[in-house]
Amino acid sequence: MNPKASHRAVQVPSVGAPLTLVDVETPAPGPDQVRIAVAACGVCGTDQGIVNGGFPGLSWPLTPGHEIAGTIAEVGAGVAGWEVGDRVAVGWFGGHCNRCIPCRKGDFIHCANGQVPSWHYPGGYAESVTVPANALARIPAELSFAEAAPMGCAGVTTYHALRSTQAQPGDRVAVLGLGGLGHLGVQFAAAMGFETIAIARGAARADDARDLGAQHYIDSTAGDVSQAMQTLGGAAVVLATAANSAAMAATLGGLQPRGELVIIGVSAEPLPIAPVQLIGPGLSIVGHPSGTARDVEETMAFAVLSGVRARIEERPLAQAAEAYAAMADGRAHYRMVLTM
């Protein structure tokens, strides 16, 4: 490929500026990199933080998008195990250095020099993207690109969080929030054999929650959430997907002894929790990051086995600004996916 070839991409020229479709130069992959012909890219809530400058070290203009799916179009020097034409996904985990102490311990998700598409290099709201080869996850034949894209962030975050808890099949697990993350969390929890409680605002979400696999629904606006959880017998785990610290804290009293509050909903607000609430019942509160490329592969494999899929609305790349706006103001029904 000509290193100066161009492709269409969506750029944000400065903090909070409008998303704009432009022609950009496509860099050829360097050593240990591949270039992906993007077929689909999910629109994630974290894109809002990127566009509005909420992460350190951002450079402008930037191209958002970290839920990427497509085919390898070009392979750089030193890349082994990947070939042109391979179907691949890249999520929030966009590469690791293999040199820092976390990497030397095998803890790649906490790489001191970890890279995230859109944050550390141009993201997937584009027809083409160049990425580190160690960020690649192989997409199963049973998943379309649009189905695979959200698994790179929303899917792996919910699935890997649940399987990292102490809960066993048959245990009761509550999922707080029924949005882009929560609707996948409910599906994964049910498919993993947990008695699943969905917690969300308003009675209108009950049918949706049960359609997604929940056995129980708690309307958080209708009364004390912890008491409602305890009426059902309490939960071994709460997976907190809603980015609302007060709502997270309101579930704590609904946990069983030694229960876990696992937080994946991103909020900068302090948790209104007193140590005395934790000590007696021996509760734990854990923040859970996303997952490595291999975790993404295992998430997709489980999705194939179980039938779990993100509920998506597809939009063409030219409508990226509209798709992003729908996500940002809550009009999106679960997940938006851009297709090229």
From TrEMBL:
Record field: transmembrane: none
InterPro entries, A to Z: ADH-like_C (IPR013149), ADH-like_N (IPR013154), ADH_Zn_CS (IPR002328), ER (IPR020843), GroES-like_sf (IPR011032), NAD(P)-bd_dom_sf (IPR036291)
Species this chain originates from: Mycolicibacter sinensis (strain JDM601) (Mycobacterium sinense)
Keyword DNA-binding: no
Catalytic activity: a secondary alcohol + NAD(+) = a ketone + NADH + H(+); a primary alcohol + NAD(+) = an aldehyde + NADH + H(+)
Domain Enoyl reductase (ER), residue spans: 16-338
Any one GO MF annotation of this record: zinc ion binding
Gene3D superfamilies attached to this UniProt entry: Medium-chain alcohol dehydrogenases, catalytic domain, NAD(P)-binding Rossmann-like Domain
Keywords: Metal-binding, NAD, Oxidoreductase, Zinc
Cofactor dependency: Zn(2+)
Name this protein carries in UniProt: Alcohol dehydrogenase
PANTHER family, alphabetized: ALCOHOL DEHYDROGENASE 1-RELATED (PTHR42940), ALCOHOL DEHYDROGENASE-LIKE N-TERMINAL DOMAIN-CONTAINING PROTEIN (PTHR42940:SF7)
Family from the record: Belongs to the zinc-containing alcohol dehydrogenase family.
A Pfam family that the UniProt record links to this protein: ADH_zinc_N
Keyword Zinc: yes
GO-annotated cellular components: cytoplasm
Enzyme Commission number(s) of this protein: 1.1.1.1
